[in-house]
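Query structure, 182 tokens:
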């Protein structure tokens, strides 16, 4: 696993829509998430989570997705661009799904986020592109559920990030905990 990656695109949306438009830059705010994004807050903002318990801590302040997934999807006949799967940060050069829980990612000059877990994609993905859900969630040969729709994080230190910024990885001390759905 490389410990350096690149920000390919940044996205935000003040409304609860599936896709997010690409922006020239985004600002991360410690303890809240992406400034101006519908999912920013100290408690859950995703509608399904709010319906269950609106007091849950927001472990999904920032959604990161690896651009390499778009390459894989294209080989299977699905064209997807940055922001279309609802991510805030599209990356390249990092195996996001292999990072342990509590990994620190330093984005650009100042922003620091902590990885909390895997994004659990929902059926809305098939509304975006029919059949896409099976591409990003499936059972492996051993019958284990594999989620490939990115990772979630919380903001530890705010800062502005934009395409071209470097991402530096700082794994937590062992033992490393695998990512689980958040």
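Result returned for the query:
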């Amino acid at each position: 696993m490389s410990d350096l990656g690149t920000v390919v695109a940044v996205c935000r949306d003040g409304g609860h829509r599936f896709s997010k438009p690409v922006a020239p830059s985004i600002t991360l705010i410690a303890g809240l998430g992406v400034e101006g994004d519908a999912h920013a807050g100290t408690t859950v903002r995703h509608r399904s989570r709010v319906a269950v318990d609106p007091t849950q801590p927001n472990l999904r302040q920032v959604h990161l997705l690896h651009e390499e997934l778009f390459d894989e999807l294209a080989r299977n006949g699905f064209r997807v661009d940055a922001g279309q799967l609802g991510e805030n940060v599209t990356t390249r050069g990092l195996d996001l799904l292999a990072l342990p829980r509590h990994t620190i990612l330093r984005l650009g000059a100042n922003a620091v986020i902590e990885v909390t877990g895997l994004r659990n994609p929902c059926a809305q993905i098939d509304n975006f592109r029919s059949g896409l859900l099976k591409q990003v969630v499936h059972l492996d040969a051993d019958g284990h559920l594999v989620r490939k729709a990115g990772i979630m994080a919380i903001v530890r230190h705010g800062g502005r990030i934009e395409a071209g910024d470097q991402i530096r990885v700082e794994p937590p001390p062992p033992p490393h905990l695998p990512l689980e759905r958040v």
